[in-house]
């Protein structure tokens, strides 16, 4: 069997003060998850634990994202997380602060004939 993408959801998240890239990434993942309903899994009698879930996070400082925390935030499936350069930093020079905007893409693949 071949794993085929059956769901693609996208989300955005931010941390407005403090420059916490992991917080922004977690919020982006939650945003994507809240756009999705996996009723198809129940209809097809697919065990959610068997889903292959590929998460891509885009932020300006990928090295500052705790990918394991992002992975642990997903409720089901065999999860992989990749953090890449993307998103947006919005500096606040008056306060020496940055607003971090993260993007998330969540691909769900199932083993299908």
What does this 3D model show about the protein?
With 113 residues, the chain is α+β, with helices and mostly antiparallel strands. The protein has helices at 21-33, 39-44, 67-72; strands at residues 2-15, 52-59, 78-85, 88-92, 97-112. It has three helices and five strands; from the N terminus they run E-H-H-E-H-E-E-E. Strands 1, 2, 3, 4 and 5 form a five-stranded mixed β-sheet that branches. The radius of gyration is 15 Å and the shape is elongated. It holds the Pfam family Lin0512_fam. Keywords: GTP-binding, Nucleotide-binding.
Task: Summarize the structure in short.
This protein is α+β, with helices and mostly antiparallel strands and 113 residues long.
Largest sheet: 5 strands, mixed
**Oligomerization status of the protein chains:** single chain
Q: Label the overall shape.
A: elongated
N-to-C SSE string, H for helix and E for strand: EHHEHEEE
CATH architecture: 2-Layer Sandwich
Count of individual beta strands: 5
The first-to-last residue Cα distance is 5 Å
Structural class: alpha+beta
Would you identify the CATH H-level superfamily? Tubulin/FtsZ, C-terminal domain
How many domains in all? 1
- Please state the CA-atom Rg, rounded to the nearest Å: 15 Å
Mean pLDDT over all positions: 93
CATH topology: 60s Ribosomal Protein L30, Chain: A
